[in-house]
Specification:
The protein is an alpha+beta fold and about 90 residues long. The chain has one domain (about 1-75). It is built from three helices and three strands; from the N terminus they run H-E-E-E-H-H. The chain has a three-stranded antiparallel β-sheet with strand order 1-2-3. Strand 2 and strand 3 (about 40-45) form a beta hairpin. Helix 1 (about 5-20) packs across helix 3 (about 55-70). It is globular, with a radius of gyration of 14 Å. The termini are far apart.
Length: about 90
């Protein structure tokens, strides 16, 4: 369970905060992680790559893979950040 690893759990919370991809989930297996959504598998990657990437980088990769494999523009599932005064992904002022 991802709840047992705080770092993994926090990264997934970040991913889910950025995107509302239907039924998006991550499944760890051995030294890999796999991403799945309502239509099926999205991508697999080494756990080290998952650890090294920021949540926004993961979302960009997941969106690209959904478009590639399913022909769906997954950017339409992005959360609405219009309430922020600035870009939430930019450096602090």
């Amino acid at each position: 369970m991802i709840e047992n690893d705080r770092t993994v759990f926090e990264k997934m919370i970040g991913i889910w905060a950025i995107t509302r991809i239907p039924a998006l989930r991550m499944t760890p297996h051995a030294d890999e992680v796999g991403f799945f959504w309502v239509k099926g598998p999205i991508t697999k990657m080494p756990f080290k790559a998952f650890e090294d990437m920021a949540a926004i980088e993961m979302v960009n990769l997941i969106e690209k893979e959904i478009d590639k494999h399913y022909g769906v523009n997954a950017k339409k599932f992005r959360a609405d950040f219009r309430g922020y005064m600035g870009d939430p992904f930019s450096s602090q002022r």
